[in-house]
């Protein structure tokens, strides 16, 4: 009777990576409320409140914000899925395309967490860091990553990317200079939707051609 072949290193890696990501998710679930609770011991539950409850804004703001958060995390998941497909097909050998998926998955994940936990607002309030400086750092990270991986940004759905960026610029400008939450969230929502469609089309086309 033939013995079963030992699992390859590649197969082991594709099993370990999801476990690492799941462990990271559990870590965040435990650590975020604990850290937040040290700063706000009487309002740990507010971690799970929407922005309407926290800021008493228009219900439209909360609705668009929550939908946007869902799409940020969905974009991160799509990019992680594309990365996983590459790992399955090519193994763990380093490549620029794998780095592209990984870096932008982290960026979209972070932006979703920022929207959900109001991280940059917390840094401004508690750390005294100017909001404009934080936004500049975010923008620089996206621009630098985009320049490094510009080869992989072009492709199907690129038109959606050109719609997304102007919307984000207007949204950030409204946040910094005019403080109109409804207009700010509306432009950000359109930008998030356009970016989601770009990532959906791009990752779908890349996976289809494998």
Your description of this structure?
It is a single chain. With 210 residues, the chain is mostly helical. It folds into two domains: 9-48, no CATH class; 50-208, no CATH class. Helices cover 81% and strands 0% of the residues. It contains nine helices and no strands. α1 packs antiparallel against α3, α3 packs parallel to α9 and α8 packs antiparallel against α9 (181-208). The radius of gyration is 19 Å and the shape is globular. The chain starts with 8 loop residues before the first helix and ends with a helix. 22% of the residues are buried.
Q: Mean of residue pLDDT? A: 77
Please give the count of helices.
9
Largest sheet: none
Give the amount of beta strand, in percent. Answer: under 5%
Radius of gyration: 19 Å
Number of strands: 0
Helical residues, percent? over 70%
Flag low-confidence runs. Answer: 1-7
The geometry reads as globular
Please give the domain count: 2
């Amino acid at each position: 009777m033939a013995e079963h072949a030992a699992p390859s290193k590649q197969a082991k890696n594709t099993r370990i990576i999801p476990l690492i990501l799941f462990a990271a998710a559990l870590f965040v679930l435990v650590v975020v409320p604990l850290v937040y609770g040290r700063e706000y011991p009487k309002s740990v539950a507010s971690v799970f409140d929407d922005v309407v409850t926290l800021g008493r804004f228009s219900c439209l703001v909360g609705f668009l914000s929550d939908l946007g958060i869902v799409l940020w995390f969905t974009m991160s998941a799509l990019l992680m899925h594309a990365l996983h497909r590459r790992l399955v097909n090519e193994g763990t050998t380093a490549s620029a395309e794998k780095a592209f998926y990984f870096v932008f998955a982290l960026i979209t994940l972070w932006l979703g967490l920022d929207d959900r936990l109001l991280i940059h607002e917390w840094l401004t309030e508690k750390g005294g860091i100017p909001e404009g400086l934080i936004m500049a750092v975010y923008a620089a990270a996206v621009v630098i990553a985009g320049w490094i991986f510009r080869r992989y940004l072009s492709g199907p759905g690129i038109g959606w990317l050109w719609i997304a960026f102007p919307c984000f610029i207007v949204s950030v400008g409204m946040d910094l200079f005019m403080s109109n939450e409804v207009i700010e969230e509306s432009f950000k929502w359109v930008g998030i939707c356009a970016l989601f469609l770009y990532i959906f089309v791009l990752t779908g086309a890349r996976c289809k051609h494998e």
